[in-house]
Specification:
Largest sheet: 7 strands, mixed
Number of domains: 1
CATH class: Mainly Beta
CATH superfamily: Pre-mRNA cleavage complex subunit Clp1, C-terminal domain
Shape: globular
Strand content: 15-25%
CATH architecture: Beta Barrel
Length: about 160
């Protein structure tokens, strides 16, 4: 009997495999793939599995697995974002992605996804659930010198 965690990791790795070019023959690490740049004010954001203080929302979304969704309402924001939803919407999910980074100066999410650009134009909401990215994706990055981004062994559990 196969452990459910292994099946979870295999399904995510299979999905992420669509980020790779079939022509190259070698697997490129995440930091070598070109992400989409999405302005904060172009998409609404919601953490659906727990309450996160608005001041900590960017820490939660950085290096996370997100649903790329389409809500029927237009996303409006008076500022340059981020746009935070107060309730979890009922909406279509067009695919998934990894928020590879958050640029606070330029107010951009950097998202890796195999969803084609014509479908991405419909995405106006990022939903962050409790789905975790397999450790092997983050720890197994080739070509990184020094500390691996988003990975730590020096964590204070008393916080």
């Amino acid at each position: 009997r196969v452990h459910s965690g292994i099946l979870h990791d295999m399904s995510i790795l299979g999905y992420l495999g669509h980020l790779q070019s079939p022509d190259i023959g070698v697997v490129l690490p995440l930091h070598c793939l070109v992400p989409y740049q999405v302005p904060f004010n172009a998409v609404a954001l919601r953490v659906i599995h727990t309450d996160v203080a608005p001041s900590n929302i960017m820490y939660a979304v950085n290096a996370s697995w997100v649903g790329l969704c389409c809500i029927p309402e237009e996303v409006r924001c008076q500022t340059d974002g981020p746009v935070l939803l107060t309730q979890t919407p009922i909406c279509d999910c067009l695919g998934f992605g990894i928020v590879r980074g958050v640029d606070m100066e330029k107010k951009l999410y950097h998202i890796l996804t195999p969803v084609p650009p014509e479908n991405l134009r419909l995405v106006n909401c990022l939903l962050l659930g409790s789905i975790t990215i397999p450790n092997c994706v983050l720890v197994g990055q080739q070509g990184i010198e020094g500390e691996i981004p988003y990975v730590t062994s020096d964590y204070n559990y008393s916080i």
